[in-house]
Queue: 4 jobs
Job 1
Amino acid sequence: MLRTVAVSTTLAVVAVACGDTGAQPDAGDDASADASGCGAEGADQPGVAVTTSGAFRGVAAEAGGLAYLGVPYAAPPTGERRFQPPAPAACAAGISDAEALGARCPQLDPDTGAYLGDEDCLTLNVWVPDTATADRPVMVWIHGGGNAIGGSAEPYYRGDRLAAAGDVVVVTINYRLGQLGYLAHPAIGAGNAGLLDQVAALAWVRDNAAAFGGDPGNVTIFGESAGGRNVCTLLATPAAAGLFHRAIIQSGACKFLDTLAQAEDQGAAVIAALGCDDDADVAACARAASAEAVTRAAAAPVGALLAATYGPNVDGDVLPEQAEAAIRAGRHHAVPLIVGANADETSGVAPLTMTQQAYEAAIHATYGAALGDAVLAEYAALSPPRAAYVKVTTDARFLCPSREITRSAALGQDAPVRRYLFSYDASPLGAVHGLDVPYVFGTFDAVETAGGAPYEPTATDLALSAQVQRYWTRFARTGDPASGGDPADPAWPAWDDADPAMDLSATPAVEAGAGAEHCDFWRPIYEAL
């Protein structure tokens, strides 16, 4: 059986003249600038894609087709650009071999505390299937990791199998993390650089999708954990208008975003830890520190699903309001949506054994005395204590929020919204957080068993992965995951008050209220936040 998958604990750039790394244009500008021959050396050469960042030669992908790895979509966010919105990438001279994955953005290993990555990290990867199809749907993956760890180079995000399965172009992106991506301080800025990186990557995809046989008018964003949270946030980010046309939110909730004041409180702690709080030029002091020093300064805990994480804040500009409030009110980018969660999200981080006393103490510590008592009463029928704890925390943090996002979106837009529950328990601990990822990408070879050996997928694993890939890529193509598909694939109805959800299990089927038997209990609590 599978071990817990270590996935997470989850400005419109116009085409520029070769060598131009000037100021960022206003978000939403059309891609109308003349690239002035950028990448012209690669024109009409087999396997070479000519982009606004230069000409790039792809490498053969394992599942067929070509991979373009480590392609810059923005200038390195170093020196004076640290903490600032992303600037356009310079045009690379000649033809570059896009054969190596880019460095992950600076972060701390959650297990060892080691510093990893490089500040020059704003790159993406493109996988193109081995077909002659033009105008393919484009799927852009936003990785998870609490906006503090992870990156597009993780082996379970390799996109060639998903691209081949659905004849789509798959793009995976890096974006700034932790303090370097989300530090807010009056002397530095509002702290949404990591979110603006994602917008810049989407603008790059819009400007360059055709170079890879992709359709810039049919882009789906999808992500898991913090990546799903970021997808949800992008729905309410004005700068992202027109840059995507469908969205899939996997195990991510976007209601709990910090206010600017909260983000600035955390930013003040970072500046103090750097010794810059009394400096005459706080911004210059913070820019002069090493990337490792900034990453380590007053770092929030990562690696635990219930711990504090980084992310966008509601600054009134880049993000005018809480994303889910915008979605419910219809003040968002109304696109077809798929939203869902796994059945046992927190099982991978819950204690392996738990007494009744420890369970009750954990609930009271998390929710307080009065609400804790109500939670214990709501889940009194569940046993043993560990199973009850996993169900409570999965419902509160993932499953019920995903249902509420679905409900909010269905109220705020005419475009269809669909819900799923991934309940297939291939892991000894159940359908844990991140377990869905190798089924989406077909990357079982990147997963280890509990004993450390490579996982050998069963026939059921492969069949479910193929079905998930059919649903995800058909959704990217048409907006309906069951449209024009295999007659054996169950139809997937749009969400309504009956709460239909696709239960992705050994035998996928639509189930009313899948996994949501306690969500009406959480709704008033969730809505009050």
Job 2
Amino acid sequence: MTGNGLRAKSDDKKEEGVSLAENQPSSFFKRKKRVNRNAKRKWGPFSSLGRRIMAINLFAVFFLAGGILYLDQFRTGLIDARTQALTTNGRMIAGALGEAALSEVSFTGKVNHLTLDTRNIRSVLRRLAVVTDTTALLYDRDGDLIADSRVLISAGREIIFETLPPPNQAGNVRKFYEVLYDFLADLIPTSQDYSLFPARTSVSVEDFTEVSEALKGESADVIRQTKDGRLMISVALPVQGFKHILGGLLLIEDGAAIDEAVKSAQVTTLIVFSITVVITLLLSLYLARTIASPIHDMAEAADKVRLGLGRRIEMPDFSDRQDEIGDLSISFGEMTVALYDRMDAIEAFAADVSHELKNPLTSLGTAVDTFERVKDDDTRKQLLAIISSDVKRLDRLITDISAASRLDAELSRTEGEPVAVVGLIDSIAEMYGAGRGPSDVSVEVEISSRDITIDGVPGRLGQVLRNLIENAMSFSPKGTRVLIRVSEDQDGEGKNWVQIDVEDQGPGIPENKLEAIFNRFYTERPKGEDFGRHSGLGLSISRLIIDAHRGSIKASNRFSSDGSVIGARFSIRLPKNNDKH
């Protein structure tokens, strides 16, 4: 039941044809942006995915930079702490030396010439320096060195000693990183952040300016470096007795312990950095495998589809993944199937068009050939009538085919708007009541509510209603009516629907043709109607429009109480617009 909305008759081939509406409905609700299909796909590092992977890779760099900043503060804190400790030890030793110098005072209260250059004071200096584990140098008022804790007197020989470092108890992994750290440190030139520490044999006041400050009664500390970059911390304090400055005490501490602590922390940082790099690489590989690789596979498959490499290209299936990649894979697969179905529909449409155009062309060609041979005027008039009928039939076919081919693209570009269903139906029904249809067939409307609104294209929905009404009127006997019934209902999921039924009182539709009538070019008309008057595209176009509105259309028969057919019914279901207008 088609052909500008009418039922018609066709061969089995047409009944089995593929319909555009049956394959992939268009939708004006989805606007798509056109892109350059020939543009080269970018897999560069500055894509959104690339930036995320780079951020993970750069995490190790930021971690290392933060560690370096922390170690700089850590080193400065160690130097300040050792300087403070050295100053505290120096005050204790200077106080003890001052007390030892005061022991030279006689019991009568007579003060002799106080001096630090005595054996007892040197002995006190050595003992205290051993206890505090500090190198101590003692200078008199004139700045001459009078005692050195590193020098022990034994049998007339001078013995200089240094404390040995503790044995290395590090594990194999840490030993490896310590060797690696030493190798890297050797590649970097030694930086001279502090002044150069004088040679070991040089112990004059000129080499240690802080001693001059101590001889003036002020404490002073200086940080120096040796040529190989080792820190040396020195603190000078005055030695006083009876508020007289007797000399200056210089304490020197090798900063090897500080360097060793910093090195230990840096080696630890290097170990953590290595672990971080390994973890980062593993995470990057994981991301590349679980994100970038599936996307790349789907992109390659999409390129094959675009280039037409194969009849049907299967998209990679990642639907088992419970993430966005799985959703994308499902969408790509469904899109590809819809694309191939659309291509098949286009091919079938072209075949159907070719088949439909051949009949009037063949008839037209036969009539023209015969017209040239016959001389009888009556026969010529009959042939001219056939030629005129075939030309009109071709014109109708081409017009309807053109409209059907443009409809899909038009619906995809058109924006929907709220449509008052009852108002639209009333206006169409009044139009047929004004004499457009057969005067002896009336059109009536039955509604459940006037406030029924849907989203759609009014012009195209009106086209569907006109097709169905004209189709029903053409099969309705004289004196009968065509009833348009509008109702609302709700499905099991709670979604509201609007149903429009167009009922006639005609002979009904064969049960085996209820779906076939929606195929393209299927035409089966009432007896007595001119052949070729309808193209068989009406119901096919109607289904295409309804599908684009996310609805459905189907045909059925109406039965009386005794089971006999009393007419046909076309039912349209469209989603209701719940917004108040």
Job 3
Amino acid sequence: MVLKSEKTGGAAFLIDEVGQESVVTPEDFTEEQLMFAETTKHFIEKSVVPHDQQIESLDYDLTVKLLREAGELGLLGADVPDAFGGLGLDKVSAALITESLAKGSSFCLSASVHTGIGTLPIVFFGNNEQKKKYLPDLASGQKIAAYCLTEPSSGSDALSARTTARLSEDGAYYILNGQKQFITNAGFADLFIVYAKIDGKDFTAFIVERTMDGVSLGPEEKKMGIKGSSTRPVILEDVKVPVENLLGKAGKGHIIAFNILNIGRFKLGMTGLGAAKEAIELAARFANERIQFGKPISSFPLIQKKLAEMNTKTYILESIVYRTAGLIDESLKDVDHASPEAGHQSAKGIAEYAIECSINKVFGSETLHAVADEGVQIHGGYGYTQEYKIERIYRDSRINRIFEGTNEINRLVIVNALLKKAGKGELPLFEKMEALETEEPEAAAPTGILSEEKGLVSRAKKITLLTLREALKKYDRQLKEEQQVISHLSDMMIQIYTMESVLLRSLKRLEKLGKEKSSNSLNMTRLFVNKGFEKIESLAKEVLAGIDEGDALLQQLAILEKLTQRTPINSMNLKAEIGACVAKNGNYVV
């Protein structure tokens, strides 16, 4: 039995049965949405890639010139309402644009920070005067934005910021003092979204212009990767910021900061997807061209295994990115950006899917890292040289597990946000866990293609809920202090969301395209769901062993054993088939 929630929304995937018709997938893209992707790809190939080395040498003028070209094409205004100079596109279209920017490497980062965490605070939380003043220039690229949250002494603990704001005696200005660290786009940004504490207490957001007296920059950071992006400290010394540049409400900066970070996390999944696809193409092409022992290395089973795992993880990432885009679209569809309530509506809509955004960030960044790492391995010694772009993708990918909240922080966010939603009555999580006691076994096993995988996803949810229930029995409100347990529970939730997303997508492909044309996606689904189920079983055992001991532990393990009984699949054959398909096509293939 599946307990249906009265409200559908964030984290409902953990407790509800979801139908394939309810998720957005790449198979649903419209011609218009695909047109935006093609326009972006053409711009990157024609205008950005030929200047790659110049951008990597940190040519500010070139980056700004290209950003303005992108603005002229509408690529910077996807998320900006048309009433304020943008295109006002749906989140799926915006995601396609962001994914398609990825081949631009460092330029992609500059553009994504500008359009995302730089511009969106004003889109979602600015008043009409602020939107009219700033958004048209941000959408066109005439002004470039940056986001100033991190400080030398405050990273993950953002609310401990020391930057201060003091209202002037005449009440016309806030006087800001402090330093922000690791600010992307700082070297050429015209506008900074800055967080400071009014009178050292009330955490608040401000729109700060580069030309305001007292704004200065520290030196460029010497980074491991993303070398073509500007990363500098922003120093604020008695900066007079007009009171009308206070963003949102005084003391409510955390609402803006955390919700914009949610969107930033979601967007990191998109750029990770684009980069992973490029890494697969580079690796497959090299493997087809590299001859050893008289044949291309792409014909070797161990290389095919790597290509299969790279392609499968990327297929799953693609599935969750566009599923999440569809969810956020639905959540924000009724926001009236001209209304005084726009900020409240936006915050509520974005926060609804904070868990899914963190999942996109963690899974996306770790998928890109794994794909890039295997891409280097397939290239062998050549992959370790700067002559081959896979080396750069590998270096550039490392920051993604730190950006927008480290993956460790995001794992804590996933479970803590789940429990917060349940505690506020927004999700019937506790009712579902109680219902497990009396839940009757399924009358009959599901039948048809991917029927076993459907059953595994259903059982994975039950295992996760049982494990979470035992953790709450043990620790109650102190569970938030048990970071290793929370991390394991988060990984189980990540597995469920990814397993279910790819299952639903592949069932949709099967329905639209038939079995023959869906064979590779069906293989990837079987491989990932079965491996994901194994991971959930392992994580559950570790959590239970850390919670209970003796007879109590044996009792829980006996319940777990009943839920995990299954016949192993032939994963070697599946990887061989998937890998051969990738090698034959020479790039990412669904």
Job 4
Amino acid sequence: MTNKLQKKWRLKPQADPIQVKRMISIIGEKFSPLAEVLVQRNLNTIEDINNWIPGISIRTVDPMQMADMSVATKRLQLAKKNKETIFIFGDYDVDGTTAVSTMSIALIKGGWKVVTYIPDRYKEGYGLSKKGIDSAVDSGASLLITLDCGIKAIDLVNYAKRKNIDVIITDHHTPGEILPDAIAVINPKRSDCKFPHKELSGCGVGYMLCRAAYQVELLEIDELDSLMDLVAISIGADMVPITGLNRFIVREGLRLMNNNPRPSISALLGKKKEGLVSLEDVVFAIGPKINAAGRMSHGHFAVDLLTTPNPELLEKLGKEIENYNLERRSTEEIISSAAKELALTYKKDIALVLFGSNWHKGVLGIVAQRMVELFHKPTIVLTESDGIISGSARSVPGLNIYDAIESSSNHILQFGGHHAAAGLTLSPNNLYTFRKEFNISVNKHWQEDKRSPEILIDAAAKPEDLNEDLCLLLDKLAPFGMGNKSPVWGLYKVTMEKTSYMSSNKHLRTLLTNPISRKQIPAIGFGWGLFRPKNKLVNVAVILEWNYFRGEQRLQARIIDIQNIM
């Protein structure tokens, strides 16, 4: 018995054998499985690898290539000259709060006067809000900059203009057919934007505006390098590709976190972990705590934490955010259980639209992702507040959920997002019709051959192939994430020996053994505590990594999937 969804294994298409053979001659026969992976990823020579590893240096990138950037920087010059107050408005998630923190620190350091604002998730919802614009008026601001939002805020930008506030939009979500009538709309996904790096985080787009503003003002642009740790957190948490420019920023950000950690990041990490801070720590330790502030209380807690230099305040805010994170976990478990029961009543639906009238709005995105993992169906989780239904959507491999929602958007009030995740609101009267139309839309947009859950295996390997030398080479290819996932190794026909179970049978430890050579590798399977092999031999998909324990660094394989051999 297992608590995991059964998946089909698919081995990646074999790389060019001539190129693989050439790569083996370069890195050595014992690394032949890695040679296959490198060539699959179009890294055919040592020069390719050496050029790819550092990413694209930010010093070779011209932010002025972005559409409207020259207009935006001129307006920022004017604001500085006239000592205007700039109102920085950002979303309440990790990307938004790191963006507001980054821009606030950068502009204040550069001599601008700023006020920061994060909308209340429950009272204002996602994106630019009327209340936020009114707050900008009350603060005496004459320029409002949106971060990680605003690309579809056509009516609200017009409202701000009527209030005599200029607006600069910075966003990375998919634009609609009509752009807001702001003085500048900075978004690399604009069809007329010539900036080559299209997949930035929202924080990354705002950071480019800061660098451009420093460039125009003839300020020392290198002073902004110290903010790449915050941009790196946004990239990891928002699941944008870790390639090219993003890869450079993440590598620099992680270097800062390890060599000269920002006190606020140390506060979020809590007790110092063993080993280096990794992108995985960003995604699973730092990101959820920042998110918890906006989910359970208010996102400005995160901004206060990330921008304050006061040690006592840091400690206080760090503890408060940790408490919100614990509350978030508990709430998420309760709602996930209810959502799972509800999902079982929609077994015939190709997509899940789940509604609970009193579910906590702050955890709906997490719950949606849990349902995707359980049922392998695109999922929208909704709740009601003040007569409006709103919630979050999460996608599955092979489906652009933004397109699927857009095709059924006649039944919703508003929506926004990208290929993997979205947010939306609708009238309670339209819930039934929307559920029906969304299922029709998903059926149209989701190819049938993509609908079975699968594990993509990078290369077949034996336990003896997964050694410390290989792991050291993989360290050079890190950080792994979107666009550069950690290689998944397929261990075929191995035995599980000396297996033990932990945390009330939630997890397992075992030795994956080649039955012929008797070579072994220690493995851990999180969430695999209910698995029991039906026969002696099993197939196991793993990721190779280091385990740090009591000051020692040891090799281990992290189990992604196990197949009984029938």
